[in-house]
Specification:
Distance between the termini: 34 Å
Strand content: 25-35%
Shape: elongated
CATH class of the largest domain: Alpha Beta
Number of domains: 2
Order of helices and strands: EEEHEHEHEHEEEEHHEHEEEEHHHEHEHE
Helix content: 25-40%
CATH architecture of the largest domain: Alpha-Beta Complex
Radius of gyration: 29 Å
Strand order of the largest sheet: 5-4-1-6-10-7-11
CATH superfamily of the largest domain: Spore Coat Polysaccharide Biosynthesis Protein SpsA, Chain A
Structural class: alpha/beta
Number of helices: 12
Largest sheet: 7 strands, mixed
CATH topology of the largest domain: Spore Coat Polysaccharide Biosynthesis Protein SpsA, Chain A
Length: about 400
């Protein structure tokens, strides 16, 4: 398996950003730019190297450095900084993804396209075609420019990052540039100077902007908000418990008069357990069996309302809000309908939902099987959640 190493140059002074500090530390909806950029690569790259100015190294190490994320000192120019980053990479065949630290909105799809291209063709550079009319200009006076000529845009692309190459190719390109005292615009401009080398473009993304000014930051915030609000997930949950004598019957956080109750380590509330698993499943978190094991005495007899509150907190910590919950209880006895409103009243404040966003339905199993013979109660649940941050 080919190793992947991301090099993130971040040693610029960010003069045009105007904040007085490196723009990579600017807040972008609750996380710094550099934290979001690292997060884009952390599941893809085996190693990540951030190349930083001397005044930012300690702050970066405290903020993002971990087992697979390292910080190294940058150089006088971007080209020098990338070279320093390359010196931390091991293995000539390692694929290197050079990516601007100030491009926090890069998507997994763009990164994957770069990697696929370098594996097949030896290089992969993210770029987008130009659609605007292009003109060359000449200086007239003061800040005035005039059109000199039209530029054919059919073969013109706006180059982004990541730019992906095998390590050896990048090292050779940098060494040749140093020998020739050549300073390129990016990695592709260095690699294309190697004899016989072709650099291949892959489709980038127009949202993959480089944050240079505060206006760019506002644009990125709006793009991120839009992406967050559009991310919706669904999850399903199911639970079943046997009915036994001598146990209280709890359903939906409500005590229901009954000769039989549900058997379980906790209060065995199948309705709340199914809701918990539907929410955890939608968020991609571990199920209730892992979170609240029946081997742990702290959960013996616990109210499932407390378990539901714990699940709500877990989703909130992971950046999710709940849209609605739909459930179906399967039971021969007792009749559930008289208690549905009380169940909604118990659940709604825990999930921070209005009661019209909680559906509790009940049916029988028509006398079929163990549920139909009244041996237990089961519940199905479907939850919808939306990204909140």
């Amino acid at each position: 398996m080919t190793r992947v190493h991301a090099v993130l140059p971040a040693a610029g002074r960010a003069v045009r950003f105007g904040s007085g500090t490196n723009k990579i530390f600017a807040d972008l909806l609750g996380r710094t730019i550099i934290e979001r950029t690292v997060a884009a690569f952390i599941e893809i790259a085996d190693e990540i190297t951030i190349v930083a100015g001397s005044g930012d190294i300690d702050r970066l190490e405290n903020m993002v450095a971990q087992d697979r994320v390292h910080v190294t000192l940058g150089g006088q120019t971007r080209q020098d900084s990338v070279w320093n980053g390359l010196l931390t990479v091991e293995g000539d065949e390692t694929i290197v993804l050079v990516h601007d630290a100030a491009r926090p909105l890069v998507t997994k799809e763009v990164i994957d396209r770069c990697l696929s291209s370098v594996e097949q063709l030896g290089s992969g550079v993210a770029a987008v075609p130009i659609f605007d009319a292009l003109k060359s200009s000449h200086f007239v006076e003061e800040s005035r420019f005039a059109i000199a000529d039209d530029i054919d845009r059919t073969a013109v692309w706006a180059v982004q990052t990541p730019q992906a190459f095998p390590l050896k190719r990048l090292l050779d390109a940098h060494k040749l540039a140093a020998d020739d005292c050549f300073v390129g615009l990016d990695e592709s401009s260095l690699v294309q100077r190697l004899p016989g080398e072709t650099v291949y473009l892959v489709p980038g993304d127009r949202s993959n902007i480089k944050i240079t000014t505060t206006d760019d930051l506002c644009f990125a915030e709006n793009m991120l908000k839009s992406a967050i609000q559009s991310e919706t997930r669904n999850g399903i949950g199911y639970d079943i418990h046997r009915l036994v004598s001598g146990r209280p019957l709890w359903l939906g956080g409500v005590s229901i008069p009954s000769e039989f109750g549900l058997d379980g380590h906790s209060d065995a509330d199948v309705l709340l357990h199914a809701i918990c698993d539907s929410l955890l499943g939608a968020a991609g978190l571990s199920d209730i069996g892992h979170r609240f094991p029946n081997t742990d005495e702290q959960f013996r007899g616990i109210s499932s309302i407390k378990l539901l509150a714990n699940v709500f907190d877990a989703l909130a910590d992971a950046g999710w809000s709940i849209v609605n919950v739909d459930t179906m209880v399967i039971a021969e006895l007792p009749r559930i309908a008289p208690y549905i409103n009380a169940m909604k009243e118990a659940i709604a404040p825990v999930l921070r939902l209005s009661m019209d966003r909680i559906s509790i339905k009940a049916t029988t199993n028509e006398g079929i099987g163990s549920l139909g013979s009244g041996q237990g109660i089961a519940c199905h649940a479907l939850a919808t959640i939306i990204r909140s941050r």
